[in-house]
Amino acid sequence: MAYDTDLADRIRELVATERGVDERRMFGGLAFLINGHMSVAASRQGGLLVRVPPAETDALTGDDRVQPMVSAGQPRRGWLHVAATADEDAWVEEWVVRGVSYARSLPPKGGR
User: Residue 110 — left, alpha, or beta (φ > 0 → left; ψ -120 to 50 → alpha)?
Assistant: First the structure.
């Protein structure tokens, strides 16, 4: 399954005013990087992939629509899969802001 282009457009609108944003196709989806760090992506599995502080992973998975990202059969701390569609404005914005805020807190990669 390809990523949701409407959701990618919604993310793009939300990060349009951010400095240091780069878009890249990654893992079959479209990722939005902040200063070289992935912050949020339109996932090929539908919904969002969101980068969060690893220590907050468990606390953020209390909603049925939020699950740890699984890679190679293992949950990955600091990465969440969030069920979302482009028309869920407040829900999508909440998670995009969360991912961007965390990525922004990390030191820039590669002298950015």
Answer: left
* Cβ density class 23-34: b for 16+ within 10 Å, e for less: eeeebebbbbbb
pLDDT at 3: 93
pTM: 0.92
CB atoms within 10 A of CB 3: 22
Domain 5-105, CATH: 3.90.1150.30
Contact between 34 and 52 (Cβ < 8 Å)? no
Residues in the chain: 112
Average pLDDT over residues 1-16: 93
Q: How many angstroms separate the CA atoms of 63 and 97, rounded?
A: 18
pLDDT digits (tens, 9 = 90+) for 64-78: 999 999 888 888 999
